[in-house]
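Example 3.2
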Amino acid sequence: NFCLIHFTKRSRITMDNSSDSEEEGNMTQEQADKLAQLQDLTGIEDTNICRALLESNAWDLEKTAREHLGIQGDVEPELPHLPDRGDRPHGLFNQNFPEEEELQETRNNARPGSRALQHLNAGSSLLNLIMYVLSLPLRIVATSIDGAMGFITSLFGFPPRRRNTVRDPQRDVSNFVQEFDQAYGNEHPDFFVGSYSQVLEEAKKELKFLLVYLHSDDHQDSARFCTEVLCNPELRNYISENFILWGCSVKQPEGQRVSEALRESTYPFLAVIVLRQHRMVVVGRQEGFIHHQPLIDWLKATVRDYEAFIVAARADRDERNFTREIRNEQDAIFAETLRKDQEREERVRAEEAKQREIDDAKRREEEEETRRLQEEQEKKCRIQNLKIELASEIPEEPDSCCKEAIRILIKLPEGQRLERRFLPTHTLHHLYYFVFCHPDSPDEFDIVTNFPRRVLACKPESADEVPVSLADAGFGKSEMLFVNDLDA
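Structure, written as tokens:
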């Protein structure tokens, strides 16, 4: 029979959904065996809860089973130290359930009033424990049959059955709050409307105590507790000022899985959770009916005993914030320095580029000037050579006694006067050569008459051009001509 149970449990573990398979694939063979045996002993269907319980006790099967079943002689069972989110399997409701202080330590730190209330509930807890042990064989058989059926159906390709699957935890809480308001009115502390994991994160972020209330409609004290205690104005004000209140009905899937994690024995149930050493820890539990004044005293005592953790967490957060601010300031200073350096480098690059442009422009101007001077020099040399060549083209000046000679007076741009005699048969080209070969003559010029003013076509344009004689140009015995500098 044990082999069948072990086989069916192992089969259910290995044929679970994809996310569970990935987590369980990290377990050794021995750990998988212990996980199946703990499910058989406790009747817990969810393998993730069983794994979390075993991990909290370093995979000590006997210790975990004794804690869960309450079999520890005169000492009341320790509550499981569930792992935080870093160690917790992904499949454990996707929640961040807090670990819990040892129950003995919590009771030793509680006030006398709390101890008296716990002794009053001792008889009820003992009766529940006896009923739990008596029903254990039946639950083991039911679990074995259920596991066998799950294994057989999985062979035909059917997915494994999961009970109490939480599909919308926030809606579960919202439904509970609405039902609570309808049944007991809205004169009660404000419930946090969100999932259990969300309220844990909120309490951790706000550094406040978290008060968890699990409600059971079937319990005879639940209605009385809600009416006389939770709706009490004094308690309402105290809880609103010092706690974040979260509640859910155990009939809702979200409330049921929180109940499986906290393992309360009776209702109404209250648990105080606080941030301790970066983990959300249950530091106080209250089970069964309690009047508002003793409840206030118990809450005050719990806050007083564990407020140091909040103070330490706040100081640690302030220190981290201060360190982050200093780092941010340093980063800002570094960024500003880097920005200034980049701007300075950009200015230097811009200045260098501008200077390069200036140097390039200056170099181009110098090159242009050099080229221009060189061209002018080449032009002067060419003109000088041309003057030497054309000097031989100037005809001999006729004698002063020649009656046909034409006396021509030429005035240069600088005021110099040239005078020479030409024959009527001489051409305008000869006149041009005479003026061009004079040292004081411009390089480019026109020869114009005085009156009427007209430009003479003296400069030769081509070798084939037929020159015009002075007689044909209308020259008389004496002419006055002017040289017009074209480069001026």
